TrEMBL record, chain A:
Its main location: periplasm. Residues 1-22 form the signal peptide. GO terms for cellular component: periplasmic space. Belongs to the bacterial solute-binding protein 1 family. It is found in: Periplasm. It comes from Primorskyibacter sedentarius. This is Probable sugar-binding periplasmic protein. Part of a binding-protein-dependent transport system for a sugar. The keyword rRNA-binding does not apply. Coiled coil: none annotated. Keywords: Signal, Transport.
TrEMBL record, chain B:
This is Carbohydrate ABC transporter membrane protein 1 (CUT1 family). It is found in: Cell membrane. Residues 72-287 form the ABC transmembrane type-1 domain. It comes from the Bacteria. Keywords: Cell membrane, Membrane, Transmembrane, Transmembrane helix, Transport. Its main location: membrane. The chain crosses the membrane at residues 20-42, 75-97, 109-129, 158-183, 204-229, 268-288. One of its GO terms (biological process) is transmembrane transport. GO terms for cellular component: plasma membrane.
Amino acid sequence: MTSFRTFFAATTALCAGSAALAADLEVTHWWTSGGEAAAVAEFAREFEAQTDHKWIDGAIAGGGGTARPVMVSRIIGGDPMGAFQFNHGRQAEELIESGLLRDMTHVAEAEGWKDIVNPPSLLEACTVDGKIYCAPVNIHSWQWLWLSNAAFETAGVAVPTNWDEFVAAGPALREAGITPMALGGQPWQSSGAFNVLMATLAGPDVLQSIYGDGDAEMAAGDTMARVFKAASDMREMVQGSNVQDWNQATNLVITDQAGGQIMGDWAQGEFAVAGEVAGQDYTCLPGLGVIEVISTGGDAFYFPETGDAETEAAQDALAATLLKPNTQVAFNLKKGSLPVRGDVDLEAANDCMKKGLEILASGAIMPDVNMLNTEDTNNQLNDLFVQFFQDTSISAEDAQARFVDIVASKD
Amino acid sequence: MAATRPIRLFRNLTAKIAAIPMILTALVVFVGGTAWTVTYSFTSSKLLPRTKFVGLDQYERLWATPRWLVSIENLLIYGVCMMVLSLVLGFLLAALLDQKIRYENTFRTILLYPFALSFIVTGLVWQWLLNPDFGIQSVIHRLGWESFDFNPLYNADIVIFGVLIAGLWQGSGLVMCLMLAGLRGIDQEIWKASRVDGIPAWKTYIFIIIPMMRPVFITTLVIIASGIVRLYDLIVAQTGGGPGIASDVPAKYVYDYMFQGQNLGQGFAASTMMLLAVLVVVIPWAYLEFGGKKRV
């Protein structure tokens, strides 16, 4: 009996001893598609290689809409994870205000994030009252049109170089038995695609004044009427793509069942996993070929307050690791996104990423919608556009009137 | 006898002490939680609850939101159809089973089995069955009837009926069981008497048996009604509220705004409206069930 007790005491002591050296850090995120999972595995590998801590993967399937409520309820329910991924912007605003997230300014200063993070707006989106609360890990832009070269070959038309040519090619694709455009049923895809149409056909300034300043007059004006007209063209083109998830829609383009898709640059990860070559199997048009501009949204990691010194050490280590040059290159190549630091070498980048890097270097950037709108406004936009794109009985004028209401009441 | 009679409050003291946790739970969790929710529905709470009162703003926005109106309409259509059809189907099945048929146990088990499945499983099964490329439509196409068109889940106008089919398949078995229990509770003498008088069986059912089964019908109605109001998981599994927002229901609206939209105030306002709807159903029932008896 006594010997048993000594044995247990010894093993307990052993466990406690090893825990002091290295903490298990649970990291939650919603990166579950092929390309995303491959990318996040790079983080885990780098984190475990460079520090003594252990990465516990807490992936939540179903996209941000499903994952965010789970994460938020764990944090406000008093069972915080070690670190979690959000799109930076206003999603974590209230969590920061109520002191649930850790101030990471000390790590940012030690690592000199202010000097390396490019564009600086990424770090600004992490900053509240002069304190830095998150570690930006990548730049994602929404303004891309992905086209299947083989689909246009089958239809006997040249691969479009801009949005208007794409719309014109729609009927030819339809005749060849190809869905002209793929769009998944998830609400955020519908509003995202609309925001891209707005940012490119009307211009980034229009988007900035509507979402940034809540300009309802602009939202009701002729410029926006043209965008809604383009959206109803798009609605004709997406008829027949009965898929839900964004990667299933991308897969329609990869397998040449659909002509194209408006989707952020994360779609590139899917093309890469499928072994497709940019320029040869598929074409990408930044800014829909209309205007060369990309938004600088992206993903960031936040670190909840845990009150546990070991976990805090691991959080600091993770934050520092995420922005190291090696980590940035390995992660972003897999994810298809752009690195947050301008000083890393992305030689292995493919054509599409190089286009993105050039635009980023030229400074033709705009803020991401997530930085301008709260989730509440985004949710209202999701409702409007998912209904608009799925239900042909709503006219462009009615949709615009509802759009104006949302803009007028946004905060 | 009267002198030694204990005080009413202390009669069955152990039972009453044992019930205290339950009473506390009911008061704190149900009543307290409800009051809290209603109070915060008048605030501008976003991700976290806060006491910044904005009057009826959340309700004004709620009733101006097309998605909420669509979800109310869907609930009404689903509710009325579900209520009528499941009662009719359940009663017919029970009446058929009550004809002293062979293998009654087997039939009863088969009919009740769908109820043992969760709404999530039911929803997924019917999502596949109603999928135009894999389900019923494609099977009939392959049998040679090419023009057959049965694709409710991808048509915004009739998608709620696609959900109704799944709901009926799942729920009718339970209604049948309740009805069967009610039928078995009817004295056989009544059947004998009506046979002696030469009344046809269908007339006996409608004019004698059904009125006698009133309590069973009321219980069944309440069970079906509460199932209708909290309809959520079936929608999520079968259609995800789609296409677009065409098959949305109030419970899904509440969830989406409270958690995905990070707008607690809006979600609370919507759930308060749902509570009102439930009260509209429950209060007349409680009055009929309990109020009526006291007068007798």
